Amino acid sequence: xxxxxxxxxxxxxxxxxxxxxxxxxxxxxxxxxxxxxxxxxxxxxxxxxxxxxxxxxxxxxxxxxxxxxxxxxxxxxxxxxxxxxxxxxxxxxxxxxxxxxxxxxxxxxxxxxxxxxxxxxxxxxxxxxxxxxxxxxxxxxxxxxxxxxxxxxxxxxxxxxxxxxxxxxxxxxxxxxxxxxxxxxxxxxxxxxxxxxxxxxxxxxxxxxxxxxxxxxxxxxxxxxxxxxxxxxxxxxxxxxxxxxxxxxxxxxxxxxxxxxxxxxxxxxxxxxxxxxxxxxxxxxxxxxxxxxxxxxxxxxxxxxxxxxxxxxxxxxxxxxxxxxxxxxxxxxxxxxxxxxxxx
Length: 344
Ligand SMILES: *Cc1c(COP(=O)(O)O)cnc(C)c1O
Prior knowledge:
The chain is of the alpha/beta class. The chain is built from 13 helices and eleven strands. It has a seven-stranded mixed sheet, with helices on both faces. Strands 8-9-11-10 form a four-stranded antiparallel sheet, with helices on one face. Strand 4 (141-147), helix 8 (159-168) and strand 5 (172-176) form a beta-alpha-beta unit. Helix 4 (54-64) runs parallel beside helix 10 (239-250), helix 5 (78-88) crosses helix 6 (105-112) and helix 11 (253-274) packs parallel to helix 13 (331-342). It is globular. The chain starts with a helix and ends with a helix. Bound molecules: pyridoxal-5'-phosphate (PLP). Pyridoxal-5'-phosphate is lined by residues 76-78, 103, 147, 151, 176, 178, 203, 205-206, 211, 216.
C-alpha cells in the first residue's frame, strides 16, 4: 500500500506558512538576546523555551533508540492526537477508524474537530481483528487509532494484526503505547523505518511518574514529524516541563524499579481479586491497571467511593458491562482496596 503524505494532508495545512519565532530564526549562541521582547532580568523562566526541545529529545533519543528528527514532543499525548486530526482530516468530510472499547480522548478530539469516527468492536476477549478494522476503511479514512496495551482493557493487541493494518492502509496508523513500559512486548518504534505510515505515541504520564508536567511523545517518519512541528504552538513545551523532563530522563533507574514494583503488585492484586466471590473475572493486563468484571459494578463503585477509594467505573462502556478499572497503587493502597471489597 503506497503512502503519500502530501496527498493525505489537508490542503490548508500543506500550503500553510508556519509562524516563525525569534528562536526559529536564530538558534546559535550569542551574548545579547534582544530579539524576542523578553524581560532581560534573570528569573530562570524569563526566556522563551527551546521551541524544538532539543536537549529533551536528545535524552529521549538515547533511551528509546529513535533519532531526534523522528521525535515530536507535545503537551501530553493529547496534543499530537489533536494535531493529527487537524493535519489530516477535513472537518465534516473525512473520517478515522478506531477500536472499541479504547481510550476516550481520540473520540473527544475528533468530535471537537467534527471528524466522523468509525468504531470497530474488539472481539469478546478484547483481541484485535485486522480485517474488521480494514473493512471499516473507505477513501475518506485518514487515520486508524490502535492502543496497545489498550485502555481500558489492559491487554496488548496482537502484533501481527497491527502489522497487517500497517501494510494495508494508506493513511496514518497510530499505535498508542502509553503503557508500553509495563509490557513485556517490544515497542513498535522498532518498525518505524519499515512503515512510513506508522506513528507511535508514548508519554511520561504513566511509568515515568510525570503526569503533572504534561509531556507526550510521538515517534514517526521525518515527514510526519515535520507536519506536526509545522502546526504546533511555537513554544508548546514550557521551560519548567523541559527542565523536569531532562532531570527525570537523566536518572531513569527509578522508572525500572517502579515498573517492577507495580507489575508485581498487579499480579498480587489479581490473585486477591480472583479469590473474592463478587469478582467474576480479572482480565489479563500488560499495563498498570486491571479491568475486572464484578457483580453490580456501579453499586460497588459507589460503596468504595463512600470508603474513600476511587476506582473507574467503566460499566457503561461497550463490551465492559459491570466492569471496573483499577489502577495499581502502593501495596498499602492495594491491600486497603481488598479489605474494603471484603466488607461489601
Ligand atoms: C494515559 C493515557 C495517555 C496519556 O496521555 P497524556 O496526555 O500523555 O497524559 C495516552 N494514551 C492512553 C491510552 C492513555 O491511557
